[in-house]
Amino acid sequence: MVARDMTSTRLLAAYRPRASRHALFALLLATTIAGCGATCPPSTHTTATTAAEDPAPEPTPAAETGGETTPTADASAMVVLDGTPAIPPALHTRLQQYLETRAATAESIAADGSSLLITTRFADTAQVHQVSAPLGDRHQLTFREEPVRAAAFYPNDESAVLYQADVGGSENYQLYRLDRRTGRSTLLTDGTHRHPGFLFSHDGARLAYTSNARNERDIDVWIGDGRAPGQLLVERTGDWHLLDWSRDGARILLLEYVSITDSRIHVLDVATREVRRVSPEGVVAADRAAVFDASGQRAYVASDRGSEFVELYEVDLANPSSEWRPLSRAIPWNVEDVVLSADGRTLVFSTNEDGISVLRTMDTRTRRITAIEGTPRGVVASLVAARGAPVVAVSMGTPTTPTDAYVLDLRRRRLERWTESEIGGLDASASVEPSLIHYESFDGREIPAFYYRARGVPEGQRAPVVVYIHGGPEAQSRPWFIPIVQFLASEAGIAVLVPNVRGSDGYGKGYLALDDGRRREDSVRDIGSLLDWIAQQPELDASRAAVYGGSYGGYMVLASLVHFGDRLRAGVDIVGIANFVTFLENTAAYRRDLRRVEYGDESDPEMREFLSQISPISRVDRIQSALFVAHGANDPRVPASEAEQIVRAVRESGHDVWYMLARNEGHGFLRKENRDVFTELAVMFLEQHLAAR
């Protein structure tokens, strides 16, 4: 439904919804937020709900934006647009193919390797499908209005599938058992609280999952049989994740996450409920992933404890304080995900090498490491090993093709594609392949960035530029397929630069710490240095530049407009932070301490003053550039009040703001219909203010 308010120049649009993993540190939410949507790799492993069982979220009142009164819509309107012009039909036509791209993520592989569970979107939201042959038909299993986040085969029951979902982007994930014979789902969790992770024992007899049901803050471990609600197994304080279950079912590897630079491996004895720390005391390190060996007596751990980068180690669990044996020291890049083959003879892992993934195997007897030849040049998003066959499911995407599911045959050392996701009929070979550049920042440090050159710019003319900034802040921009970036570079004649400013992951723990505490604005200065670099390029027009980013990237957008407003024509802020103090006070309780480690504790008077000083809301009078703000009303990470206050303040300073509020979304736009509206508005906004062709 689209209705124009005839008494003003504003357009009010109300869109009703149609009826309708394992990589623990895959921190790509920022990119999901900022435009790749269903084509992005997955985030942490979890599961979903069914439309009939989930009440529709209560409509959230439209934000008070200051200045003129915000238009009100029909109470059932799920998206309210305020201050935005009408979207021309011609723009929708130009964008149509890019809006119809989709991706497929391998969530689970059958024990014998004969079929995959994937999540992909055919209608408005991602759902669970089964694929039983390479490039075979995708057989849809769930038909929910809400997106499904993850899924798994029941190891001992082919008639059942476990899956996970939330409602309205709340991130309060629930677990469901789908009976494939009847098509009906049974709720296994409480329907209210957050259940972010799950893990089956190898025999499938037990299901472990995590929950904050006890106090809505700390993450505990629960256990059940996967057919009925489970019971609390152990209480924990802080943020805890399930990593692996020993093959005899006796023990579970847990990860205690304190911060991106401080996380510890523990072993949980299921029978005695004893939790024993594996990571040595007194050593601050990031232990990011771990799996048991076949005997359960040793573990393979990805950790940065012995070097600048995350390496692979072998650890004796009976004596974890003894020397950790380094296995991948010759590879000066981060190890990402790690899985062990069914026979225990092959460890499969990926490394992040300047943003590009390299898929490798290690023979657990000889410890010889070799790369898998013929792997596409892109990003490995997840690895899932079959329980009874020498195969591993791999989710992988490239800059010109969305994430798809592959299967790695360990005997033949061959990677075979199992899904080929549609890209709206676009010619993938005609997409823009980014080049990796490095530019010098204010202190002489080299900053990496992916550069998408604009196509079709007339000879003698310079292209306008969009600087696309990731969130996190401890995330990393990787070369995966992002439809809006491809459209800007391929169709709109707008170059896109995607930097990994200081504080980004993937370049060593020293680089990761460069924006901590009172050095927060040094990363903003990196954007200023990138604008300097742009001005030196003969093919780029530095007078027509914009910034674009989501979550922490939204803060970077606002901060860039504060510091470099005379050099930036426009900014697109998606679910961004406007005020660090109110953000920390209002973010979900289970996240607050985690974010305080990164940004500082707002309850400390000196730090509170500093955080207030660097918050864009405190210097809103400096924002002179055009601004587009978009947010989800149910965002538990960065509350929608952050958008409300920056929109109100900028308008009170005398400037217009485009504002989009999605009432049925959280930290980003996961529904296709909402993402389409946002993408159309963002492209229109950028083309208008950059005077693009």
TrEMBL record:
GO terms for molecular function: serine-type endopeptidase activity. Residues 42-70 are annotated as: Disordered. Residues 1-38 form the signal peptide. One of its GO terms (biological process) is proteolysis. Keywords: Hydrolase, Protease, Serine protease, Signal. Residues 154-419 form the Peptidase S9A N-terminal domain. The keyword Repeat does not apply. Residues 487-691 form the Peptidase S9 prolyl oligopeptidase catalytic domain. It holds the Pfam family Peptidase_S9_N. PANTHER family: DIPEPTIDYL PEPTIDASE FAMILY MEMBER 6, SERINE PEPTIDASE S9 FAMILY MEMBER. This is S9 family peptidase.
